[in-house]
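Moderator note: this is an archived Q&A kept for reference. The question asked for a predicted structure of one protein chain; the sequence and the answer are reproduced below.
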Amino acid sequence: MQTIDGIVANTGNGKTRIIEGLPFGDYCQIDAINNSGLKLILRSPSHYKKQEQKDTKALVVGHAGHTAVLEPHLFHHNYAVFGEGLTKTTKEGKAEWERLEATGKSILRYSEARDAHQIAAAVKANETARRLLVGRPELTVITELQGILCKARFDNLYNSEDDHDWFMSIFGDDAEPGNYIIDLKTTEDASPKFEKSITNYSYDMQDAFYTDVGNAADLNIKGFIFVAVESTNPYEVGVYMLSPEWRQIGREKYQYALDTYAECCFSEEWPGYSQKIVRLAPPAFVVKSHALKFN
Protein backbone atom coordinates (compact mmCIF):
# COMPACT_ATOMS: atom_id res chain seq x y z
CA MET A 1 0.00 0.00 0.00
CA GLN A 2 1.34 3.41 -0.95
CA THR A 3 1.98 5.56 2.10
CA ILE A 4 0.40 9.00 2.43
CA ASP A 5 1.69 11.01 5.38
CA GLY A 6 0.16 9.41 8.45
CA ILE A 7 -1.74 6.37 7.15
CA VAL A 8 -2.37 4.22 10.21
CA ALA A 9 -4.73 1.52 9.00
CA ASN A 10 -6.02 -0.47 6.08
CA THR A 11 -9.07 -2.31 7.37
CA GLY A 12 -9.04 -5.03 4.73
CA ASN A 13 -11.25 -3.24 2.24
CA GLY A 14 -8.71 -2.20 -0.38
CA LYS A 15 -10.42 1.17 -0.82
CA THR A 16 -10.61 2.03 2.87
CA ARG A 17 -7.99 4.34 4.36
CA ILE A 18 -7.70 5.98 7.77
CA ILE A 19 -5.22 8.83 7.71
CA GLU A 20 -3.82 10.94 10.53
CA GLY A 21 -1.98 14.20 9.98
CA LEU A 22 -3.12 14.77 6.41
CA PRO A 23 -3.03 18.50 5.58
CA PHE A 24 -6.40 19.94 4.63
CA GLY A 25 -5.16 20.89 1.16
CA ASP A 26 -4.18 17.27 0.50
CA TYR A 27 -7.55 16.09 1.80
CA CYS A 28 -9.27 18.35 -0.72
CA GLN A 29 -7.33 16.66 -3.54
CA ILE A 30 -8.66 13.19 -2.73
CA ASP A 31 -10.98 12.14 -5.55
CA ALA A 32 -14.02 11.09 -3.53
CA ILE A 33 -17.40 12.63 -2.67
CA ASN A 34 -17.78 14.29 0.74
CA ASN A 35 -20.61 15.71 2.82
CA SER A 36 -20.22 19.25 1.44
CA GLY A 37 -20.54 17.91 -2.09
CA LEU A 38 -23.62 15.89 -1.20
CA LYS A 39 -25.28 19.00 0.27
CA LEU A 40 -24.73 20.76 -3.05
CA ILE A 41 -26.17 17.76 -4.90
CA LEU A 42 -29.36 18.13 -2.85
CA ARG A 43 -29.68 21.71 -4.06
CA SER A 44 -29.02 20.60 -7.63
CA PRO A 45 -26.38 18.52 -9.41
CA SER A 46 -25.47 21.68 -11.35
CA HIS A 47 -24.49 23.41 -8.10
CA TYR A 48 -22.11 20.55 -7.32
CA LYS A 49 -20.56 20.46 -10.78
CA LYS A 50 -20.05 24.24 -10.96
CA GLN A 51 -19.15 24.85 -7.32
CA GLU A 52 -16.83 27.70 -6.38
CA GLN A 53 -15.31 28.27 -2.95
CA LYS A 54 -16.38 31.58 -1.44
CA ASP A 55 -14.68 32.64 1.79
CA THR A 56 -17.18 34.69 3.79
CA LYS A 57 -16.13 36.31 7.07
CA ALA A 58 -17.97 33.56 8.97
CA LEU A 59 -16.05 30.87 7.07
CA VAL A 60 -12.72 32.61 7.58
CA VAL A 61 -13.26 32.89 11.34
CA GLY A 62 -14.62 29.34 11.47
CA HIS A 63 -11.57 27.85 9.73
CA ALA A 64 -9.18 29.90 11.86
CA GLY A 65 -11.06 28.91 15.01
CA HIS A 66 -10.81 25.24 14.05
CA THR A 67 -7.07 25.57 13.63
CA ALA A 68 -6.68 27.43 16.93
CA VAL A 69 -8.61 24.70 18.76
CA LEU A 70 -7.57 21.52 16.98
CA GLU A 71 -4.14 22.33 15.53
CA PRO A 72 -2.81 25.31 17.50
CA HIS A 73 0.76 24.45 16.46
CA LEU A 74 -0.21 25.23 12.85
CA PHE A 75 -1.92 28.56 13.47
CA HIS A 76 1.07 30.81 12.81
CA HIS A 77 2.23 28.49 10.05
CA ASN A 78 -1.08 28.87 8.19
CA TYR A 79 -2.12 32.43 9.08
CA ALA A 80 -0.64 35.91 9.03
CA VAL A 81 -2.38 38.69 10.98
CA PHE A 82 -3.01 42.16 9.55
CA GLY A 83 -2.20 44.48 12.44
CA GLU A 84 -4.78 46.26 14.57
CA GLY A 85 -5.78 49.65 13.20
CA LEU A 86 -4.24 49.07 9.76
CA THR A 87 -6.26 49.52 6.57
CA LYS A 88 -5.38 48.88 2.94
CA THR A 89 -6.28 52.47 2.10
CA THR A 90 -3.08 53.84 3.68
CA LYS A 91 0.44 53.54 2.32
CA GLU A 92 1.59 51.75 5.46
CA GLY A 93 -1.36 49.36 5.44
CA LYS A 94 -1.03 48.58 1.74
CA ALA A 95 2.69 47.79 2.16
CA GLU A 96 1.98 45.54 5.14
CA TRP A 97 -0.78 43.69 3.27
CA GLU A 98 1.55 43.08 0.33
CA ARG A 99 4.25 41.82 2.70
CA LEU A 100 1.80 39.37 4.26
CA GLU A 101 0.58 38.21 0.85
CA ALA A 102 4.18 37.38 -0.08
CA THR A 103 4.34 34.88 2.81
CA GLY A 104 1.75 32.68 1.08
CA LYS A 105 -0.26 32.41 4.28
CA SER A 106 -3.96 33.11 4.68
CA ILE A 107 -4.38 36.66 5.96
CA LEU A 108 -6.60 37.38 8.95
CA ARG A 109 -7.66 40.82 9.99
CA TYR A 110 -6.87 41.60 13.61
CA SER A 111 -10.51 41.12 14.69
CA GLU A 112 -10.70 37.73 12.94
CA ALA A 113 -7.53 36.49 14.65
CA ARG A 114 -8.87 37.75 17.99
CA ASP A 115 -12.12 35.86 17.50
CA ALA A 116 -10.25 32.66 16.57
CA HIS A 117 -8.15 32.80 19.74
CA GLN A 118 -11.20 33.62 21.88
CA ILE A 119 -13.01 30.62 20.38
CA ALA A 120 -10.07 28.41 21.36
CA ALA A 121 -10.00 29.87 24.88
CA ALA A 122 -13.74 29.31 25.31
CA VAL A 123 -13.51 25.68 24.24
CA LYS A 124 -10.54 25.11 26.55
CA ALA A 125 -12.46 26.66 29.46
CA ASN A 126 -15.45 24.34 28.92
CA GLU A 127 -14.60 21.01 30.55
CA THR A 128 -16.97 18.93 28.45
CA ALA A 129 -15.81 20.42 25.16
CA ARG A 130 -12.15 20.27 26.17
CA ARG A 131 -12.25 16.60 27.13
CA LEU A 132 -14.26 15.54 24.09
CA LEU A 133 -11.69 17.12 21.79
CA VAL A 134 -8.86 14.96 23.15
CA GLY A 135 -8.21 11.94 20.96
CA ARG A 136 -7.39 11.64 17.28
CA PRO A 137 -7.89 15.12 15.77
CA GLU A 138 -8.38 15.90 12.07
CA LEU A 139 -8.77 12.25 11.11
CA THR A 140 -9.35 11.53 7.42
CA VAL A 141 -11.42 8.46 6.51
CA ILE A 142 -11.91 7.18 2.96
CA THR A 143 -14.23 4.26 2.22
CA GLU A 144 -17.17 3.15 0.08
CA LEU A 145 -20.86 3.74 0.75
CA GLN A 146 -23.44 2.41 -1.70
CA GLY A 147 -20.54 1.43 -3.97
CA ILE A 148 -19.30 5.04 -4.17
CA LEU A 149 -15.94 6.23 -2.84
CA CYS A 150 -16.56 8.71 -0.01
CA LYS A 151 -14.33 10.77 2.24
CA ALA A 152 -14.78 12.51 5.58
CA ARG A 153 -12.53 14.53 7.87
CA PHE A 154 -13.44 14.13 11.55
CA ASP A 155 -12.57 17.08 13.77
CA ASN A 156 -11.82 14.52 16.47
CA LEU A 157 -12.35 10.83 17.17
CA TYR A 158 -12.94 10.49 20.92
CA ASN A 159 -12.78 7.12 22.66
CA SER A 160 -15.04 7.20 25.71
CA GLU A 161 -13.28 4.16 27.17
CA ASP A 162 -10.22 6.33 27.74
CA ASP A 163 -12.31 8.54 30.06
CA HIS A 164 -15.04 6.09 31.08
CA ASP A 165 -16.19 7.33 34.50
CA TRP A 166 -16.37 10.98 33.46
CA PHE A 167 -18.14 10.13 30.20
CA MET A 168 -20.80 8.06 31.96
CA SER A 169 -21.35 10.84 34.51
CA ILE A 170 -21.96 13.35 31.72
CA PHE A 171 -24.01 11.25 29.30
CA GLY A 172 -25.77 8.80 31.59
CA ASP A 173 -25.78 5.06 32.11
CA ASP A 174 -27.37 4.41 28.70
CA ALA A 175 -24.33 5.82 26.88
CA GLU A 176 -22.46 3.21 24.85
CA PRO A 177 -18.70 2.99 25.36
CA GLY A 178 -16.67 3.35 22.19
CA ASN A 179 -15.71 5.87 19.57
CA TYR A 180 -17.55 9.16 19.13
CA ILE A 181 -17.07 11.63 16.29
CA ILE A 182 -16.71 15.15 17.69
CA ASP A 183 -17.49 18.05 15.39
CA LEU A 184 -16.63 21.64 16.26
CA LYS A 185 -19.08 24.23 14.91
CA THR A 186 -18.75 27.99 15.12
CA THR A 187 -22.15 29.65 15.23
CA GLU A 188 -24.00 32.83 16.11
CA ASP A 189 -26.05 31.05 18.79
CA ALA A 190 -24.78 28.00 20.71
CA SER A 191 -27.90 27.73 22.89
CA PRO A 192 -30.40 24.93 22.07
CA LYS A 193 -31.51 27.26 19.27
CA PHE A 194 -28.49 25.72 17.53
CA GLU A 195 -31.16 23.40 16.14
CA LYS A 196 -31.84 26.13 13.57
CA SER A 197 -28.27 25.82 12.30
CA ILE A 198 -28.66 22.04 12.19
CA THR A 199 -31.69 22.51 9.95
CA ASN A 200 -30.32 25.34 7.81
CA TYR A 201 -26.95 23.69 7.14
CA SER A 202 -28.08 20.04 7.10
CA TYR A 203 -25.86 19.05 10.00
CA ASP A 204 -28.18 16.06 10.50
CA MET A 205 -26.91 14.80 7.14
CA GLN A 206 -23.30 15.26 8.23
CA ASP A 207 -24.00 13.34 11.45
CA ALA A 208 -25.37 10.33 9.56
CA PHE A 209 -22.83 10.46 6.71
CA TYR A 210 -19.79 10.69 9.00
CA THR A 211 -21.17 7.97 11.29
CA ASP A 212 -21.73 5.59 8.39
CA VAL A 213 -18.35 6.39 6.82
CA GLY A 214 -16.69 5.65 10.15
CA ASN A 215 -18.53 2.37 10.62
CA ALA A 216 -17.81 1.29 7.03
CA ALA A 217 -14.14 1.75 7.99
CA ASP A 218 -14.63 -0.46 11.08
CA LEU A 219 -14.17 2.41 13.54
CA ASN A 220 -17.09 1.27 15.74
CA ILE A 221 -18.76 4.69 15.89
CA LYS A 222 -21.25 4.94 18.76
CA GLY A 223 -22.36 8.52 18.24
CA PHE A 224 -21.75 11.98 16.84
CA ILE A 225 -21.42 14.99 19.14
CA PHE A 226 -21.52 18.67 18.17
CA VAL A 227 -19.44 21.16 20.12
CA ALA A 228 -21.02 24.51 19.20
CA VAL A 229 -19.12 27.68 20.08
CA GLU A 230 -20.25 31.23 19.42
CA SER A 231 -17.96 33.16 17.09
CA THR A 232 -18.46 36.48 18.90
CA ASN A 233 -18.36 37.66 22.51
CA PRO A 234 -19.14 36.02 24.95
CA TYR A 235 -18.10 32.92 22.93
CA GLU A 236 -20.42 30.59 24.83
CA VAL A 237 -20.27 26.83 24.23
CA GLY A 238 -23.01 24.20 23.92
CA VAL A 239 -22.66 20.43 23.40
CA TYR A 240 -25.36 18.49 21.52
CA MET A 241 -26.31 15.10 20.12
CA LEU A 242 -29.15 14.43 17.69
CA SER A 243 -31.97 12.02 18.41
CA PRO A 244 -32.01 8.75 16.41
CA GLU A 245 -35.04 10.08 14.52
CA TRP A 246 -33.22 13.23 13.39
CA ARG A 247 -30.11 11.24 12.41
CA GLN A 248 -32.26 8.93 10.30
CA ILE A 249 -33.67 11.95 8.47
CA GLY A 250 -30.09 12.97 7.73
CA ARG A 251 -29.27 9.43 6.59
CA GLU A 252 -32.13 9.41 4.09
CA LYS A 253 -30.96 12.78 2.75
CA TYR A 254 -27.36 11.71 2.13
CA GLN A 255 -28.41 8.36 0.65
CA TYR A 256 -30.69 10.15 -1.82
CA ALA A 257 -27.85 12.53 -2.68
CA LEU A 258 -25.44 9.61 -3.23
CA ASP A 259 -27.94 7.92 -5.56
CA THR A 260 -28.34 11.18 -7.48
CA TYR A 261 -24.57 11.61 -7.68
CA ALA A 262 -24.17 8.07 -9.07
CA GLU A 263 -26.86 8.69 -11.68
CA CYS A 264 -25.21 11.94 -12.79
CA CYS A 265 -21.78 10.30 -13.02
CA PHE A 266 -23.27 7.54 -15.19
CA SER A 267 -25.26 9.87 -17.47
CA GLU A 268 -22.66 12.66 -17.45
CA GLU A 269 -25.57 15.07 -17.04
CA TRP A 270 -25.73 17.51 -14.12
CA PRO A 271 -29.16 19.19 -14.22
CA GLY A 272 -30.12 22.36 -12.42
CA TYR A 273 -33.61 23.48 -11.48
CA SER A 274 -36.74 22.47 -13.34
CA GLN A 275 -37.43 24.38 -16.57
CA LYS A 276 -41.17 24.06 -15.98
CA ILE A 277 -43.25 26.77 -14.32
CA VAL A 278 -43.56 25.82 -10.65
CA ARG A 279 -46.55 27.03 -8.65
CA LEU A 280 -45.52 28.28 -5.19
CA ALA A 281 -47.81 28.11 -2.16
CA PRO A 282 -47.27 30.14 1.02
CA PRO A 283 -45.09 28.36 3.62
CA ALA A 284 -46.70 27.47 6.95
CA PHE A 285 -45.01 30.37 8.77
CA VAL A 286 -46.49 32.87 6.28
CA VAL A 287 -50.00 31.43 6.74
CA LYS A 288 -49.61 31.54 10.53
CA SER A 289 -48.26 35.10 10.52
CA HIS A 290 -51.10 36.27 8.27
CA ALA A 291 -53.73 34.61 10.44
CA LEU A 292 -52.36 36.24 13.60
CA LYS A 293 -52.25 39.68 12.00
CA PHE A 294 -55.52 39.77 10.06
CA ASN A 295 -57.90 37.32 11.73
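Archived answer notes: The mean pLDDT is 90.
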